[in-house]
């Protein structure tokens, strides 16, 4: 059973079926892109734990998983417990999806994290910001994803604008909690790992690009990381300690960190594979490791297949056209023919709107490339994107 059937989970659906595994797809949207490719498609919300558990029992499933999404993790844990299937524990799933519980667990274990507060009201937000005593800070929902509701707030910002940003973060929080955190400076990275019977293996470190100027939406990823080896060693040590503190003992994980002047600090961790094509595309292209297959094996209680590292490099870059209405898109076929280009995806077509990029769902497409030897995958992405002309009528 795969929870979610969007474009994020499609690689797992396809991989499982190629392995001869029958797939039950669960998604509240009956028209989700992956539903038509499942053996059985169930239009159920992935966070409706009783309904998903009932369906899992009815179909006597052998494994349950999601891919690149935090929301279904508590369901995965609950179904795993009820049916005795390999899965993360419910306590670990909660700590991995509630940012306040996550911060508390990491802080108690001595994992380096920013200063933090959890608040419910604007008055509590003001008090927390005052206690931080910094010129700027981060606010974000305690239990959302995809950069929704994440804002950089300055002490010089007008009160009504601070109230608006706080209300936006609160809107995206299902629990009604908003995190107020120290703003960390430095490069941002993510780390993909697999933990099997309590042993964590680091598979890849990814350098990130974000929009910037207070917008934390990711617009690019590159593997392997260009950080100095001693910094990467420190990152690996922090990630392993983070996985242990959350209680992940049988699951993939995706950890985001900032390399601050004081060393690596954890932004957050997810007890699942990373999204944004990182683990579905970049990890296999840069290392030769099929993480999707490994996660299916873990969910089914099968031994993970041995792998041989292939030292390539890979990158994904997301388009950033101006806001407006698309009038034409040209050059896609030519870009796809460039050596090293593995995929060009456009999620909008002529006549559709281009929104401001405020979260990952606003991005309109991407290019994925692989480099070998001296070839640079990021440069290949840029060349391909420069060949694609997206004409937008701005307002």
Task: Please describe the topology of this protein.
Layout (H helix, E strand, L loop, with lengths): L1 E2 L6 H9 L5 E3 L13 E3 L6 H11 L5 E2 L6 H11 L6 H8 L1 H10 L7 E4 L2 H11 L3 E6 L9 E4 L4 H13 L6 E5 L5 E9 L2 E14 L2 E9 L5 H18 L3 E11 L2 E8 L7 H10 L3 H9 L13 E6 L5 E7 L1 H5 L4 E6 L6 E2 L10 E7 L5 H11 L1 E5 L2
Parallel strand pairs: 1-2, 1-4, 2-3
Antiparallel strand pairs: 5-8, 6-7, 6-8, 9-10, 9-12, 10-11, 11-14, 12-13, 14-18, 15-17, 15-19, 16-18
Helix pairs in contact: 2-3, 3-4, 4-5
End-to-end distance: 45 Å
Globular, elongated, flat, extended or rod-shaped: what is the shape? globular
Mean pLDDT: 95
Radius of gyration: 21 Å
Number of strands: 19
Q: What are the low-pLDDT stretches, counting only 5+ consecutive residues below 50?
A: none
Walk across the major sheet and give the strand order: 13-12-9-10-11-14-18-16
Total helical elements:
12
Secondary-structure-based class equals: alpha+beta
Helical residues, percent = 25-40%
Strand content: 25-35%
The largest β sheet comes out as: 8 strands, antiparallel
């Amino acid at each position: 059973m795969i929870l979610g059937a969007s474009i994020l989970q499609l690689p797992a659906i396809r991989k499982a079926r190629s392995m001869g595994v029958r797939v039950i797809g669960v998604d509240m949207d009956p028209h989700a892109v992956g539903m038509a490719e499942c053996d059985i498609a169930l239009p159920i919300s992935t966070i409706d734990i009783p309904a998903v558990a009932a369906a899992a029992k009815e179909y006597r499933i052998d494994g349950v998983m999601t891919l690149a999404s935090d929301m279904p993790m508590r369901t995965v844990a609950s179904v795993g417990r009820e049916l005795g299937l390999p899965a993360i524990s419910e306590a670990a799933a909660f700590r991995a999806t509630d940012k306040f519980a996550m911060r508390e667990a990491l802080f108690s274990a001595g994992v380096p994290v920013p200063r933090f507060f959890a608040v419910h009201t604007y008055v509590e937000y003001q008090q927390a910001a005052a206690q931080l005593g910094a010129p700027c800070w981060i606010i974000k929902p305690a239990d959302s994803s995809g950069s929704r509701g994440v804002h950089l707030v300055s002490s010089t910002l007008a009160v009504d604008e601070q109230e608006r940003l706080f209300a936006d973060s609160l809107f995206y929080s299902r629990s009604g909690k908003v995190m107020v955190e120290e703003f960390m400076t430095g490069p941002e990275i993510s780390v993909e790992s697999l933990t099997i019977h309590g042993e964590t293996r680091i598979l890849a470190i990814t350098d990130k690009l974000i929009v910037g100027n207070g917008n934390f939406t990711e617009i690019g990823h590159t593997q392997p990381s260009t950080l100095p080896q001693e910094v990467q060693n420190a990152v690996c040590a922090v990630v392993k300690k983070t996985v242990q503190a959350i209680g992940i003992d049988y699951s993939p994980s995706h950890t985001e960190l900032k390399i601050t002047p004081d060393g690596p600090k954890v932004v957050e961790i997810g007890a699942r594979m990373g999204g944004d094509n990182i683990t579905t595309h970049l990890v296999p292209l840069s290392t030769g490791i099929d993480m999707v297959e490994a996660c299916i094996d873990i969910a089914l209680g099968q031994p993970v297949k041995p792998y041989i590292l292939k030292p390539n490099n890979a990158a994904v870059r997301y388009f950033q056209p101006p806001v407006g209405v698309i009038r034409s898109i040209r050059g896609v076929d030519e870009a796809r023919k460039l050596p090293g280009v593995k995929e060009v995806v456009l999620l909008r077509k002529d006549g559709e709107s281009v929104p401001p990029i405020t979260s990952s769902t606003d991005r309109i497409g991407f290019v994925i490339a692989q480099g070998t030897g001296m070839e640079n995958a990021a440069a290949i992405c840029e060349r391909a994107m420069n060949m694609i002309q997206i004409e937008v009528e701005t307002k």
